[in-house]
User: Fold FAD/NAD(P)-binding domain-containing protein from Penicillium chermesinum.
Amino acid sequence: MASRKCAAVVVGAGPAGVAVMGNLLERQLGTIAWVDPCFEAGRINRRYREVPSNTKVALFEAYATATQPFRNVIEKARLPNAFSTMSKLEQDKTCHLHYAADMVRDLTDGLVKMEQVYACRGFVTAAKLTEKSSNQWTVRVQRHDSEGDVEIETSRLILCTGSHPTNLPCPVPSLDIQQLDLDTVLKPSELTEAIPTNRPSTIAVVGASHSAILALLNLIQLARTSHPQLRVKWFTRHPLRYAEYMDGWILRDNTGLKGTAADFARTQLEDDKLATSPAGEVITKIDCTGGDARENAQYWAHLPTCSHIVHAVGFTRDPLPHLTKNGSPLALEFDHESGRFHESNNGPAIPGLFGAGIAFPERVVDPYGNVEYAVGFFKFMKFLKKVVPSWATKI
Ligand SMILES: Cc1cc2nc3c(=O)[nH]c(=O)nc-3n(C[C@H](O)[C@H](O)[C@H](O)COP(=O)(O)OP(=O)(O)OC[C@H]3O[C@@H](n4cnc5c(N)ncnc54)[C@H](O)[C@@H]3O)c2cc1C
Ligand SMILES: NC(=O)c1ccc[n+]([C@@H]2O[C@H](COP(=O)([O-])OP(=O)(O)OC[C@H]3O[C@@H](n4cnc5c(N)ncnc54)[C@H](OP(=O)(O)O)[C@@H]3O)[C@@H](O)[C@H]2O)c1
Assistant:
């Protein structure tokens, strides 16, 4: 098997992996290995190009210009390109995510051509830490080309492996109800094919955060156009929560509704609007507040008349490579402040292992003491600016 040494191995080429690359390259540590099956901006590009952003264009631009290697890529890119297109959009408005995805793809295309980057199209299947000798990781990559697997030795391994929608079983187990994938519901061009037009369908939507509200929006759009027989039951266990712009900071910056989802929720979904709004002609709200017993009773009462169910209840980390230390499997806990890991149950620090992105976000506390996890392009960048200098120091 081929083998080589690198200053770091970055796993994943979504917006977080790209941001890590920009920050590491800026520090000129030597060759950085970068592994991803396709180098095409991760899940945002694969699944969410049709989703409206909940952050302003200016923040995507701030991300794209935050490191010198990114600025070098942008300078060299032939016009027109994703950056020039993005810069023509209104900076304080939101945009569709295809603009952001294309920008990350252009950054990726520029970064993989750099001399200090060893881009490896494939999948990291395992990584073993050998502590006794020199805290080295040996990272195994299953390559997606004909060159076979490769092993990379490094003292820094950075996991930017992403997350996928959380799947839950149907709350009423024996029902014959079709599960709809959240990713499909967030993609109108696919959703239209997933629901029949020739018979009535009732879709259960579970949740009340960004994904759930956009799911409702896409479904009522279908009901008002190609699918007039479609109806929605909306199972929600808390009131709608919005981001609020305070003096110099944002309350519920990471959990509150923003952008298109917030506008739609405010004007059509609030209790005093739903009865008379266009959305109310399609959506019946099923109030699941009041605890587990009531929530369960609501499902038993209202789910049997539904044909489909979509869970919009957050995201779960993608499976990690098989990680071992001195031959034994590692159980990890992420430190959301330093971006490092330690062994579970307050075990020892794991040398040279770091994380970033939606799977490993920064923990933030707002001026009211509320704790949130910072998920977003520019939030990843801000976190990395803070922690990468310590990751980069000689180990
Ligand atoms: C629907 C939705 C809308 C969002 N909208 C916004 C927005 O408007 N603004 C904003 O700032 N943020 C937004 N976010 C939040 C966040 O920016 C995105 O979730 C972003 O895609 C997360 O990037 P990531 O790099 O952490 O993960 P991903 O994009 O999931 O990338 C992970 C990458 O790692 C690869 N990978 C995984 N395991 C391995 C392995 N073992 N070996 C090699 N490669 C591997 C995957 O193939 C993938 O390419 C949104 C999130 C969602 C879910
Ligand atoms: N561009 C966009 O507009 C957009 C769209 C989608 C997602 N995103 C981003 O993607 C990330 C994930 O967002 P998300 O909206 O998918 O999820 P999320 O913000 O993680 O919220 C998950 C929600 O699901 C609820 N929930 C969890 N388990 C539940 C259950 N069993 N039954 C009912 N409700 C349950 C939670 O409510 P409780 O608090 O009651 O547990 C919470 O409100 C965020 O960073 C978000 O900004 C952005």
Remarks:
- The chain has two domains: 2-164+316-392, 167-313.
- The radius of gyration is 23 Å.
- The pocket of NAP (ligand 2) is lined by residues 51-54, 168, 206-211, 214, 237-238, 255, 259, 261, 312-315, 375 (CB under 6 Å).
- The first strand starts at residue 2 and ends at 5.
